[in-house]
Write a structure and sequence with these properties.
Blueprint lengths: L11 E2 L11 E10 L5 E6 L2 E7 L5 E9 L2 E7 L2 E7 L4 E7 L3 H4 L1 E5 L1 H18 L2 H4 L4 H25 L4 H27 L31 H22 L10 H14 L3 H18 L3 H14 L3 H16 L10 E3 L5 E3 L8 E6 L4 H17 L4 E6 L5 H10 L7 E4 L2 H8 L7 E4 L5 E6 L4 H13 L2
Parallel strand pairs: 2-8, 12-13, 13-14
Antiparallel strand pairs: 1-6, 2-5, 3-4, 3-6, 6-7, 8-9, 10-11, 10-14, 12-15, 15-16
Length: about 475
């Protein structure tokens, strides 16, 4: 449903569990996985694994949770995940068919109604968000009216549910936050869609367009690990950073990867957010995004140094330091790392043994179905256009070969040039694969030509055209 990078932001523990706190108690969590991708499911509280639940011979699992702190937990299986709201005395069972993970998921048992409601809300909002690009072309006042109407529809459904099924304050907060922050995020993203690469003209927006910002707290401890909250905060600080960017540069076209813009963003995050956990998360992911897309070593060094001065989380600073070093190793001219793959015949193979001419290496995950399909369709076009260039497709999921090849057959993709990572955890670190859209281009000697290409933009097409000419 979503990129696994969000797993670190998905859990939320709204109430701490202490001996004298009667809100803590026993809960049960179990279920069945149809067509499993592997033999286990992992339950997370925030980014911390609560337990690895192994499937029995009937592909079922069960867990008793003692001293449960009520909150949103995530469960992960075969590269896909969902969330479950667990509170004391809940006894929740799930049923999933991996062929259609999100659509097939059903909750039963005590506590199932609130979870089925939240699941329906998550799926509905995600579907709506895919249509927001078109709505972003509407005039500001029209867009605002349309968005307010869609939001109110969700609020009405939530209120009807609460009248029929009285729920806990925790459920109320989670459900309302999910609706509110999703639409707050769309408000923050809208100017970038409407104005495109040109500067945002605030005079064009309705006077009350950002009135919702008065309701927002940058330091909500209860939401510090809730991903809709972060999905709002990222575009929000993108917007705030635009003001200084306009004053500091003479650019006529907005460049989201400008070093001035990104340094301003880190400064705003550092100065406006007091909650260390929220601040450190925003600093980490904003820095990683810039480093992944930067082609200037001095600018990368400047943003890296700014991050190191501001972050107070050693785990984050270690992560970004290693990530930065990895990107340097992937700089043009360096040799492509030795990565072990598995082919469709379950044979281990080194990726460099597959490279004997200019080659495009691209990646996909079953968690992002749109990219999986669109990238394969795009490569089919490029392969026909540039037959002298090799294209290698690499799946990054933790799964068995049969599940991987089944996915390809289901979508009618030829498995001839398809591979999966033998050790995804190791390879993800070596290749800095947080961005699944990442494309690496190498020459016939496995020397890197480009390490952060995007097959869907015109610059990438120009690169392949030049490489194809060199082969003539």
């Amino acid at each position: 449903m979503k990129h696994l990078i969000v797993v670190a932001l998905i859990g939320i523990t709204l109430l701490s569990c202490k001996k004298e706190n009667t809100s803590c108690g026993l809960a049960y969590f179990g279920g069945e996985i149809i067509n499993p991708n592997n033999d286990h499911l992992v339950l997370y509280d925030s980014s911390n694994p609560v337990d690895t639940l192994y499937l029995d011979e009937n592909n079922r699992f069960f867990r008793t949770i003692d001293n449960l702190a009520p909150g949103l937990y995530s469960f992960v299986h075969g590269g896909e995940y969902q969330v479950v709201l667990l509170e004391p005395n809940d006894s929740i069972m799930i049923r999933i068919n991996t062929y259609d993970f999100d659509e097939s998921l059903v909750f039963t048992g005590k506590g199932s109604k609130k979870n089925n409601f939240l699941l329906g809300l998550f799926v509905k909002l995600e579907r709506e968000n895919t249509t927001m690009y078109e709505l972003g072309k509407l005039e500001p006042a029209v867009f605002q009216k349309r968005l307010d109407s869609i939001k109110q529809e969700k609020k009405d459904k939530l209120n009807s549910f609460l009248e029929k099924y009285p729920s806990s304050p925790l459920f109320n907060k989670v459900a309302n936050a999910c609706i509110d922050y999703n639409y707050f995020a769309q408000k923050e993203i809208y100017p970038f869609r409407y104005f495109g690469k040109h500067y945002v003209d605030p005079d064009v927006l309705p006077e009350d367009f950002y009135a919702f910002r008065k309701e927002v707290s940058y330091d909500d401890e209860d939401l510090k690990d809730f991903y809709p909250y972060y999905n709002f905060l990222f575009p929000h600080f993108n917007n705030l950073a635009l003001g200084k960017y306009v004053d500091q540069t003479n650019d006529t076209i907005f460049n989201r990867y400008s070093v001035h813009y990104n340094l301003n963003k880190l400064q705003l995050i550092d100065s406006l957010i007091k909650n260390k956990s929220i601040k450190n998360n925003l600093l980490k992911y904003s820095t990683r995004n810039f480093l992944s897309n930067s082609s200037s070593p001095p600018e990368s060094e400047a943003v890296y140094s700014s991050f190191m001065l501001k972050s107070t989380n050693k785990e984050h600073t270690d992560y970004i330091t290693n990530f930065f070093k990895t990107l340097k190793n992937l700089a043009p001219g360096n040799r492509f790392p030795e990565i072990e793959l598995i082919d469709r015949n379950k044979q281990n193979i080194s990726i460099n043994s597959l490279i004997n001419k200019k080659t495009v290496v691209y990646f996909w995950t079953k968690a992002n179905k749109n990219h999986f399909i669109e990238s394969h369709q795009k490569v089919a076009e490029l392969r026909a256009k540039y037959p002298d260039i090799n294209f290698i497709s690499v799946n990054v999921n933790h799964q068995d070969v049969s599940s991987w090849t089944r996915n390809l057959r289901k979508n009618r993709f030829n498995s001839k040039h398809e591979y999966m990572l033998r050790n995804p955890e190791v390879a993800n670190k070596i290749l800095a694969l947080y961005n699944i859209y990442k494309v690496i281009v190498v020459d016939e000697n496995s020397r890197i030509i480009s390490s952060n290409g995007n097959m869907f933009n015109t610059e990438f097409n120009r690169l392949l055209k030049e490489l194809s000419k060199e082969n003539l």
